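Re: [ENG-882] Designed sequences occasionally contain unexpected residues at chain ends

Forwarding the minimal case from QA. Structure tokens:
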């Protein structure tokens, strides 16, 4: 007999002997309708969704490095390397949808650093651009090409000499593009 069933029987018997006033539920499983209702109630914050996208991108980079003897993809080729059909680094072999887009738009270009007129520091810098840095008026994504002021953009730069990288998530605060997330290695 499986341990879980034995545990449940033993726990139920001890409850009977000790006089529990109500039955115990061991493994509550909410209905599919209840789960859907909870998901519909939760407001969707595009800045939070951007954080989830950034973590997925970060995890894909680390999986890539495991498969390539600790080497990370160059900034210029990262998106292609992580989304190449059949690599499975990113779900469905594509970048996650941009949470600031009104339709399912996926970033398809690498954003090079240092970018002109941008305070974003490249991976060669000793410290990254801090979270909360305003980048100026932002742009709503309207096509798959993103730049450092596109809401929802993921900016990645890699320094092979130091084997370090920086990933920025560009969020929205008012009408400004803002560094909302920073991940470094």
């Amino acid at each position: 007999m499986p341990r879980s069933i034995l545990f449940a029987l033993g726990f139920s018997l001890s409850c009977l002997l000790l006089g529990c006033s109500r039955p115990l539920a061991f493994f509550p499983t909410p209905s599919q309708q209840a789960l859907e209702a909870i998901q519909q109630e939760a407001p969707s914050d595009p800045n939070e969704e951007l954080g989830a996208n950034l973590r997925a991108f970060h995890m894909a980079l680390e999986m890539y490095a495991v498969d390539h003897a600790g080497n990370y993809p160059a900034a210029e080729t990262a998106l292609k390397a992580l989304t190449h059909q059949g690599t499975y680094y990113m779900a469905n072999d594509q970048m996650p949808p941009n949470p600031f887009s009104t339709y399912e738009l996926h970033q398809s270009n690498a954003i090079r650093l240092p970018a002109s007129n941008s305070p974003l520091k490249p991976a060669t810098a000793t410290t990254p651009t801090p979270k909360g840095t305003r980048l100026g008026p932002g742009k709503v994504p309207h096509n798959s090409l993103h730049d450092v002021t596109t809401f929802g953009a993921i900016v990645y730069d890699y320094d092979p000499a130091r084997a370090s990288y920086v990933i920025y998530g560009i969020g929205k605060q008012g009408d400004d593009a803002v560094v909302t997330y920073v991940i470094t290695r």
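QA comment: On inspection the terminal residues look reasonable. The chain has a mean pLDDT of 77. Proposing we downgrade this to a documentation issue.
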